Amino acid sequence: MLISGMLLASGNLSAQVKSALLDPVDMAGNLEEALTFQKYATYPQYVDMMRYFVDSYPGTCRLDTFGTSEQGRLLLALKISDNAAEEEAEPRFLYTATMHGNELVGYPLMLRLIHYLLSNYGTDSEVTALVNNLAIWINPLSNPDATFYPDNDQSVALSIRQTSNGTDLNRDFPRVVDGDPDDTTGRARETRMMMEFLRENRFTMSANIHSGAEVVNYPWDYTLDRHADDSWFRFVSREYADEARAVDPGYMALFTDGISNGADWYIIHGSRQDYVTWYLGGREVTLELAEEYRMNSELLDWHWQINARSLLNYMAQCMYGITGTVTDRETGKVLTDPGTGEPVSALISIPGHDSTYSMVRTTTAFGDYYRPVEAGAFDLVASAPGYLNDTVHGVETDWYTTTRVDFQLERERKSGTGAELALEGTRIWPNPFRNAFYIDPGTGGPGSTGTGGPGSTGTGGPGSTGTGGPGSTGTGGPGSTGTREMIVEIHTLTGVTVYGEIHDRDAGTIGISPGNLPPGLYLLRLSTPDGSRVFRIVKY
Ligand SMILES: [Zn+2]
């Protein structure tokens, strides 16, 4: 009894520490006081403040209402950029906070960050570079009903984690583990609105801000497997934690380095970080910025002091890596679908490094792409439907550096090229398939190794039959760079890429396990430097 009594007492104590009892003194009395960022803004002050920013800095920001909450509160995001009203060829960045409505710290922190960026633009060189080079989006409050629970716009004192009808938004996104399609059906209104906003903007990098602990949490949340860009994630996460701990050495002390892989800490499914990073090809981390959930307002200033430098550094990472454009060699303009004439995206992939989720795509507006990546040397392949692949070898990258690589792709010719021959006789088996299928490169064309059909691979796995050594081809058609990659992509009928891998096209039979796809008809696209071909495949 004594022991359980003590446990109960300590449990209550920690609950008290984690959720301080806020009172009216923690709320700002008016907009002017809210703009000191020493108090929490009420809901009307929050909306007024977002409008105040646009009114005060009309050239550098634009307010977007990307939806409304279940109880009708506004889901707001402010875009900050040098020509905020226009779409420009620049990387897109997003901060979003307080999807758990009682994890308050991010809400005032993001309002203060907006103010800092806008008021220092043009005078502070670091801020000016960020605003000039990025399209920055900030959504300070992504679950307003829960923050102003129970339907009380004047106070955050009774804020709760879930939405007003009980959904935990950080478990409500499509689940990679279940093979969920990228579909909003059946999800909370706040999730649906956020998914649409994220899909529309396709952020290069992002972070969502929480509290309850102090750690930078990077993908994945759902599996102990590592992301293809694990060392990049660890680098930017460490940079965040190190800089914050330089201000307060006691901060982010939960893990030795201040960072953790999400699943190493604890596995969750349906998190936003995994949704953005897996389904949208983005790069998102989860910033846990305070032990306390409902923090007393007198601590807000200190949390800004600790985190301001790190928040700016993380944004700056969005400018680094490999960037460039992919255009049509003949027209000099963005790539277009040969049938419809509509603009199409190119896929940028790094053979030997990338997985399906980590490849990036060009925008259809400008043909620009942004590939954050660790320091190293990489081959870069650009591919698009109706065009010949192009490869640039040995692209060197370094931390805090931007490397430019532009591609001009040549239209695929419909007949008589080496490409057609190279993919002639290609067989897909079994089809329909259940979990896996094989691509047999066939007998035709340069570099062919097709020595045996199904059943002949019993002595070695896929990839063990390659007879042509490196450098033994180089005979491809126009645009060929002598490389031997074959990009294998699976698309849904609506054009969503659900799988992408790069293989050696001369290595013999290729085994493909596309993972958790729902049963149905898909399009399999095989692309080599000389051309591509599409097959219909059925999963049952
Ligand atoms: Zn949270």
Give the N-to-C terminal Cα separation.
57 Å
**Share in helix:** 10-25%
Tell me the strand order in the biggest sheet.
1-2-4-3-5-8-6-7
Small molecules bound in the structure, each named once: zinc ion
Tally of DSSP β-strands: 23
Provide the low-confidence segments as ranges. Answer: 1-17, 443-482
Q: What is the mean predicted local confidence, pLDDT?
A: 87
Structural class determined from secondary elements: alpha/beta
Written description of the protein model:
- This protein is α/β, with parallel strands linked by helices and 540 residues long.
- 24% of the residues lie in helices and 24% in strands.
- The protein contains twelve helices and 23 strands.
- The protein has an eight-stranded mixed sheet with strand order 1-2-4-3-5-8-6-7, with helices on both faces. Strands 9, 12, 15 and 16 form a four-stranded mixed sheet that branches. The chain has a four-stranded antiparallel sheet with strand order 11-10-13-14, with no helix packed on it.
- A hairpin with a 5-residue loop joins strand 19 and strand 20 (497-504).
- Helix 4 crosses helix 11 and helix 8 packs antiparallel against helix 11 (300-316).
- The longest helix has 18 residues, at 230-247.
- The N and C termini lie far apart (57 Å).
- Mean pLDDT is 87; it is low at 1-17 and 443-482.
- Residues 100, 103, 170, 210, 212 line the site of zinc ion (ZN).
